[in-house]
Automatic annotation (TrEMBL):
SMART domains: ETF (SM00893)
Physiological role: The electron transfer flavoprotein serves as a specific electron acceptor for other dehydrogenases. It transfers the electrons to the main respiratory chain via ETF-ubiquinone oxidoreductase (ETF dehydrogenase).
Coiled coil: none
InterPro entries for the chain: ET-Flavoprotein_bsu_CS (IPR000049), ETF_a/b_N (IPR014730), ETF_b (IPR012255), ETF_beta_N (IPR033948), Rossmann-like_a/b/a_fold (IPR014729)
Record keyword Metal-binding present: no
Domain called Electron transfer flavoprotein alpha/beta-subunit N-terminal: residue spans: 23-211
CDD domains reported for this sequence: ETF_beta (cd01714)
Subunit structure: Heterodimer of an alpha and a beta subunit.
Protein name (Swiss-Prot/TrEMBL): Electron transfer flavoprotein subunit beta
Keywords in alphabetical order: Electron transport, Transport
SUPFAM superfamilies: Adenine nucleotide alpha hydrolases-like (SSF52402)
Lineage of origin: Bacteria, Pseudomonadati, Pseudomonadota, Gammaproteobacteria, Salinisphaerales
């Protein structure tokens, strides 16, 4: 079996986000970037399948400029067999990403496309669903557990009413939720070996993909500061304050 894992270069979740003065977006220059955390969970799951002998090959793919090679090398350090960078200098919309991943299916022929349920920078959460739609494949999103064999997958996902279990045929698109696993800490020897491994290059043009131009960010603003809390000196005062706010 072959798994294609999609990863995105995103600002590290520990970094304090700063908005550009003109509201055009967030400041990225000189800011630490990492693999999107949900994509890292997908990576971990694919490597666990490989270590268990369920999967024969794991291929990591990312779309972006030369800087995203750093995150692809992280994927190689996890244990991916190959890494592909699809060159693109502009922001990548969900539809552009979906078109790219579906185009790669022709040459890579994966049994599973595994990705994080969303990226922490734009929080669209649409790429997996769009990819499955373009390919006409079954999809299972927000997976908290996954069991696969050569022909099918059983995916458990958390919903408002509890747990929902889906049985889907392969090939399929699956997106990973936070509870699927806890990614491993990378060992220094694996990181050093990954620096010497090649990264395959492609582009939207080579894949015959047209970038989506229908979505653009017009303005970015920081959330309004939270109002300070109110100190009360008795339970009665607390109840009165809650009633004044319409909460009781």
């Amino acid at each position: 079996m072959k798994v294609l894992v999609t990863i995105k270069r995103a600002i590290d979740y520990n970094v304090h986000i700063r908005i550009a003065d003109d509201g055009s977006g967030v400041i990225t220059d000189g800011v630490k970037h990492s693999v999107n955390p949900f994509d890292e969970i997908a990576l971990e799951q694919a490597i666990r399948w490989k270590e268990a002998g369920t999967v024969d090959e794991v291929v990591a793919v990312s779309i972006g400029n030369a800087a995203c090679a750093e995150q692809l090398r992280t994927a190689l350090a996890f244990g991916c067999d190959r890494a592909i960078r699809v060159a693109h200098e502009e922001a990548v919309s969900p539809l552009t990403a979906a078109r790219t991943f579906s185009a790669l299916v022709e040459s890579e022929a994966p049994d599973v496309i595994l990705m994080g349920k969303q990226s922490i920078d734009d929080d669209n959460g649409q790429t997996g669903q769009m990819t499955a739609a373009l390919l006409g494949w079954p999809q299972a999103t927000y997976a908290s557990t996954i069991e696969i064999n050569e022909t099918s997958a059983r995916v458990t996902r958390e919903v408002d009413d509890g747990l929902e279990t889906l049985d889907i045929d392969l090939p399929a698109v699956i997106t990973a939720d936070l509870r699927l696993n806890e990614p491993r800490y990378l060992k220094l020897p694996n990181i050093m070996k990954a620096k010497k491994k090649p990264i395959e290059e492609s582009s939207l043009e080579a894949l015959g993909v047209e970038a989506d131009t229908s979505l653009r960010v017009t303005h970015t603003a920081a959330p309004a500061p939270r109002k300070p809390g109110v100190m009360v000196d008795s339970p009665e005062a607390l109840v009165s304050e809650l009633k004044n706010k319409g909460l009781l």
